[in-house]
Structures are given as structure tokens and as C-alpha cells.
Amino acid sequence: MRRLIPILLIFAYMWATIIPISFFLLKVVANMPEVFPKALEPVGTATLKVAIGAILFVVWVLTSKAIVEGYVKRKLKAQA
Amino acid sequence: MDLGPLLGSTLLPFILTTLLTELLIRFLRSKGFVVRDYHKQGMKMVPRPGGPSIFAGSMASMAVLYYFMPSEGLLAMALSVAIAFAVGMLDDFFTLGGIEKPLLLTLSAVPILALGAYDYHLRFPLFGAARLSIVYPILVVLSMPVVSNTVNMIDVMNGVMSSFMIIATIPLAFFFLLQGNEEMLLASLSLISVCLAFYLYHRYPSKIFPGDSGTLALGAMYGALAIVGRAEFVGMVALFPAIINSFSYLASVKGFIEHRKVKERPIEVEGGMLKASRSMKAPITLVRMLLLDGPLSERDVAKNIAILASFSSALAILTGVMI
Description:
By secondary structure, chain A is mostly helical.
């Protein structure tokens, strides 16, 4: 069971971070047109929402990947 | 709930998949369609592919469900599964390249898009739905090959893929029950029944391997269920172990490279036990991560993956409650 704990923590991290990302995407980005109406005019709200959503998703994927790789490399170095 | 659709989604696929798998094992063996089980000592040969029995079981169940409750959603699911199964059969017998397979699998998204069996209001946990009228169809095209391949890549050892799919489909069924979506609930029960029947033959020591035709068909059914039933987030969370496995693998081999062409193996077999490769260049997989703390038997690896799947399924159920 002990060997499962780091992997379970990675799952918990992935799950816990996807929810604030959803929140940011939906609430903060959706309200941006009201906060910055002029600045957003040339870009378009939909494009911006998608772009920010995509960036956040990529950040989520990359941090999860970095955590997994970091864990594997640390273990391998410790055993070398 | 009427008895007809309930039996059509539980008993029928279970019995049909069981009978057909039994017959398929004999047929494949007699025709010499066997492959080596690399995690066993000696030259243990196992029949492959078991995809046809998985496909027949799920199609029969879908046909019965469609008879009782005709809908674009069920039709789209059935067609998506058929396309993924066809791609899998091609791969089983002719071995597709690392790029061709995902490209061909994008075709499994076509029935969902063509029949309009989706809702572009993506529902997020806690915060409601977002209208993604342009992006959502693109996500459908991308996600169908991703889910199918992800399920394909978790087929690493005896019984792992089938048990994983049973555990990962439970949150979907629970979510559909919560939402009162009878049609999708029955479709998810059908997926569980097919996987359960196949698991009886796929569990350690395997009597048959599903092959790509089996794994891709099941993956397509899972992806279609999540999209048509609007349970995208629930499905994604339940698939975390498979997502970590496939993504870490693809990231470490740097691209869509067919696994047979990867030089360094992530694990080694020694005296009947599985060991993680110590090479920094070997691909990172879920099994390798599990073996970093020391060798395990194949059966124990399968048990550990089932525990990980249960944990992510519990998170997925929680996600479903939050939607």
C-alpha cells in the first residue's frame, strides 16, 4: 500500500487543481468582457476564453507530467 | 425501469460475450492466432484478439436498447464502437503506425457529430455549464482517439484493462443514475457487463487477450458514453490512472511511436517477478511507477492498478455529485 501513496497523491493533485481551473475559466474569464470591454473588442470573448482555457489546460497537463517525471527520477537516483 | 431494456443491457451482453469468448478462444487457437505472454516464464502463448466477442456483445446490447428506446445517442455510440473496432482489427492483423492509428480513430467521432448526439454546453463541477459551440465539436474529434488509445495503453497485463474498465465505468453509471438518464445508465451497465464477461477470461492467468480491436472498441464506447451522456469530467477523472500511464509514456518516448518500436522496456521480468527498468531512457509507465519500490508479481501489479482505479473512481463519483 505504501508504494501507492505517491501515485494517489498525484491523482488527488490532478483532481484538486482541475476544479479551480474550471472556476477560473468559467467565472473570471467569462466576466472579463464586463471588466475590460474595450481591450477585448478586437480579440473576441469566445476566442479569448478558448485561448485561456487551452493555456490553463496545458499548464495543468505539464505540471502533472513534471510531478510524475520528478517522482520517477528521484526514485531512480536514490536507488542508483 | 422496464425489464426488457434492463436484461438487454446486463444479462444479454454478459451471456453473449461469455459464450462468444469461449468459442473465440478455441477458434483462435485452432487457427494459430496466438501471441506470447511476455510477463510469464517460458513461452506461454495466448489467443488474440478477443475484440470480436467484445464487439458482438456490446452491439447486441445496443441493438436491444435501441429497439426499446430509439435515440441518436445510442445509434451514434454503436457506430463509433463499430469504427473503433474496425480500426482495431486492422491494427491486430496489419499493425498500424503510431500516427495512422489515432488518425483513423478520429473517424469514430464522426457518428457523434453527424447525428448531433452531443451538447456543446460543457458542464463543469461546481460552477455550471459553459457554451462551447465551436470548440466542443473539435474536442469530440480529439477526445475519441485519445480515450480509445488511453484504454488501449492500459492493457498492460493479465486482466488489467477489463478490470480497470469495470471500475472506471461505475462512476459513469452512478452519474447517469443521479441525473435520471435511464438510456445512458443502461448503456453504461451494458459496458460493465461486457467487461465483466470478458474479465472472466482475461484475468490472471489470461486465456485470451483483447487485442487492439477489443481495447479500442471499449475505449470508444467509454468516450461516446461520456460525451453523449454529458459526463465528460466524470469520465476524465475516472480515467486518471490510464491518462497518467499513456501521457507519461508518450511524453517519455517523445511522440506517437508504436510500442513495438521502443528500444528500452519500462519493466523487466526476472524469476517470475516484474522489476522496474533502472534506465533513465526507459519510458515512464504506471506499472514502472508501481515497481520503483521493488519487484512485484504480475497479479499484485494488477491488484495495485485496481486500487488506483478505485481511488480515481471515488474522485469521479465525487465529481459527478458536484456537477
